[in-house]
Amino acid sequence: MIESVESATPAIESATPAVCRLQLGAELRRLRKDSEITGAEVCRQLSWAASKLTRLETAENGVVEPSDVIALCTIYGVPPETTRTLTGYAAVTKTKKDWWQTPDVRDIIPPGFRAYLGLEATAESLRNYESEFVPGLLQLPEYIRALLERARAGLSAEKIDKLVAVRMTRQEALTRKQSPLEFTAIISEAVLRRKVGSAQVMRAQLSHIANLVRTNPHVKVQVVPFELGEHPGMNGPFTALTFPKSLLRPIVYLESLAGASVLRREEDVRKYEEAFSDLQALAPGYQESLSMIETASKEF
């Protein structure tokens, strides 16, 4: 169970909208369960669609209306002080914008990925398996640009510049002063061997990964060598996220050409967590993997 809202949340004046949405969702879900009122009964009393309550409790709404929070708190019998705190967090979602919601980049980020960025920005740890390219949080601008020019042919130079900036902004989670993101990546050896852009781009990219690993203990990378043969990651890349203070249960994020999806069911998430753990056990350790990365960088 999550701590009480007063002890679990950061100060309202310093909170981001993404954190506010997650905190509100977790707290409203806890309050409903503590009051022993079903979601169906809540929706009946407020004349809401069931999907509206679900979106509030899973932090899927970009903006949370303070009036909706007050209505829920009234049903749950929440003390006035807690109600004021929660409505304050709802107000933040209306008065502040996360960086990915700003006008200069919002138009180039699909809605589904904007939702993911909110999850990534509040995650405590992120585990990523990639089979084809360097994980986004480790990419250099030149590598990103080469990928986009090939994968998204037809994009204007201006849009490519914006997408590069988006990815670079995401990477700030690795170097933030307070609670940097714990990032663990497992990559196929193919990622080291496949030339993206020029040989110079690849040398710089692989050297960048090695430098990040050496200088940031919260960034870890393992390489799955070709000689390992079949392995648990062969069903495709995935990203598993965990969150602080039980704001949200662990989730898994998947991408394909048809779009993106988030897995929330405990049994689905467990399958990917087990696959990642198996990959960690099968792949060479961090130091040996670092040597593989440094050797590959010299071969371009």
Characterize this entry briefly:
The protein is α/β, with parallel strands linked by helices and 300 residues long.
Question: Mind sketching the topology for me?
Answer:
Blueprint: H1 5-8, H2 17-35, H3 39-46, H4 50-57, H5 66-76, H6 80-95, H7 103-106, H8 111-122, E1 125-130, H9 141-151, H10 157-170, E2 182-188, H11 189-193, H12 199-215, E3 219-224, E4 238-242, E5 251-256, E6 259-263, H13 266-282, H14 286-298
Parallel strand pairs: 1-2, 2-3
Antiparallel strand pairs: 1-4, 4-5, 5-6
Helix pairs in contact: 2-5, 2-6, 5-6, 9-10, 12-14
3D structure, described in words:
The structure is a single chain. This protein has 300 residues and is of the alpha/beta class. The chain contains 14 helices and six strands. It has helices at residues 5-8, 17-35, 39-46, 50-57, 66-76, 80-95, 103-106, 111-122, 141-151, 157-170, 189-193, 199-215, 266-282, 286-298, and strands at residues 125-130, 182-188, 219-224, 238-242, 251-256, 259-263. The chain has a six-stranded mixed sheet, sandwiched between helices. It starts with a helix and ends with a helix.
